[in-house]
Amino acid sequence: MDSIDLTYASLPLTVITITGVLSLAAFLLYKWLLPKPIHGIPCNKEATRSLFGDIPSMLNHLKTHKTFSDWFLSHNTRHKSPIVQIFPNPFGKPVVMISDYRESQDILMRRTKEFDKPDLISDIFFGLSSEQHMVLPTNDAFRAQRKLLQDRSEAHVMAPGFLNGVAAPQLHASFMDLISLWREKMRLSEGRPFSVKVDINDAALEAIWASIFGIEETATITREQVTLLSSKKNIELPPSVDLEVGFPRASAPPEFDAILRLTDTIEIVIKSPAPRLVGRLLRWVPRISKLLKLRDEMISAQISKAEKRMAHTKGTADKISNAVDHVLRRELMAAERQNRAPHYQSKVIIAELFGLLVAGHDTTSTALSWALKLLAGSQDIQRKLRSELRSSFAAAHSQNRVPDAHEIATTQNHYLDACLEEILRCAQTATIPSRTATTDAVILGHVIPKGTRVMMCGLGGGLMVPPFEIDDALRSKSYHVAGGGKVGEWGSGDMTEFKPDRWLVKDSATDSQVFDAMAGPHLQFGAGPRSCFGRKLAYLELRLAIVLVIWSFELKPVPERYASWEAVEGLTHAPVQSYVRLVEA
Ligand code: HEM
């Protein structure tokens, strides 16, 4: 009897003990999962008291904004500091945000042993193509893979010989298709505005496709559109000349459609708190896995075509007709050196070619969309650019033809260079380069623990907003050795203005205005060894597209309802509206 009493008597005590232990464990787990701020770096105090850190604030921002780079930058403004920390991932480590051009440049260019990939780009592309070199840290595997595309020789996909001799004619042909399409739209719209967002997106994909795979026999969306619209005498028009005209659209060939749709998934990935996980999960969504399969099949078919070409040309460098030929030739050379059979249909080669398509398509399309808005919004600059082009390409002007690919690629025009650089600066196409600390490292006097993600805001101090005052003693040794870098500064008064002249300086030898790429900062292609691989191709594409458009059309201002400067961010920072009202130039 006694023993039974004892058992009953001890029951509540056991329950209390177990409850107490569980509560303590839950409390300790909760404490352990809470964001762990880095000592001394400003952060939102409320975020450090929530398991979800800054996620609610970010989601709240996304309810009313289509962009997130401004949300990141707002923390530097709020804390009045060039360095802040944010908690954008659940239970995650802090992300350090730098808003200072000189510090960003130092980290990206000179402190590459302390800061490397993974970065935001690796996270974004991981789900779509984990074999692509942009996902890898700067190790031997990365270097070997990069050699498929580029090395110190004269024959690689970003060398002047390839860009001017092979890529430029392909790009020129693609953008001339766009000009033909807009001529048809201009004719049918009778002075009304129309959206060119989709046209630019299609043409940019076709242009990069042309330089990677060649495009002669492919039925492109733009050509299909030209055929469709040129068959129409007229279309139904809205009553007012200030109302937009919509056009029927030809359907996209499946291979282009697959790339466009896969690019669209990036927006879901980038805006999620766990991009790698979401990217990986998306692969299992039936619709997306079907697109991925189609992508692999169509790239594989392009490789087979290139193999056949190579069998004819025996891999000679001067018979290269596009980037895939180059890549196969490089694989052949590597195989010969390593005494093995070439593996042309490897996952890595497919991934590299796909990576170039996506990285080179959305970015250029976005920059071009901003270019049209900026030039339509600044009629004086547009007129001056057109007049500079007419005198630079005098032969084309007098022969009443458009300048050809070679002329555009190789003729120097300082005002055109200044416009291109200023368009890229103002477009803010890619706003946040990032890196991860590979070791405990010091930034502006703060110890950043190994494994911390560091993001550098392309809209930040010295770039689009006046720089914070920073004591030079807080900067790194490499910064001082480099004398702070050789790039000039923008005056605080007009940083956000579209002003190509800021890139021109007086050359006393010729008493003329010449383009100076170091006149002031922008971070549009990142910096250092992991900066944009396709930068030279991007300049070439934009150069060709802008010359051909400004040569052919006057971009008239569009009615206010179609002229919003609002942006939307996915892989890039793109305009929500892209309208033109065209007149023959
Ligand atoms: C206006 C056009 C473009 C812009 C604004 C742009 C911008 C960028 C930026 C900001 C980065 C990250 C750099 C860093 O973290 O330091 C990047 C990386 C990259 N870009 Fe571009 N890009 C453009 C066009 C292109 C084109 C045309 C290609 C190729 C066809 C390309 C291929 C790449 C690749 C492969 C990387 C990854 C490099 C690496 O991981 O080492 N980009 N780009």
TrEMBL record:
Signal peptide: none annotated. Its cofactor is heme. Keywords: Heme, Iron, Membrane, Metal-binding, Monooxygenase, Oxidoreductase, Transmembrane, Transmembrane helix. Heme binds at residue 532. It comes from the Eukaryota. The keyword Transmembrane applies. The chain crosses the membrane at residues 6-30. The keyword Iron applies. One of its GO terms (molecular function) is oxidoreductase activity, acting on paired donors, with incorporation or reduction of molecular oxygen. PANTHER family: CYTOCHROME P450, P450, PUTATIVE (EUROFUNG)-RELATED. Belongs to the cytochrome P450 family. This is Cytochrome P450. It comes from Cucurbitaria berberidis CBS 394.84.
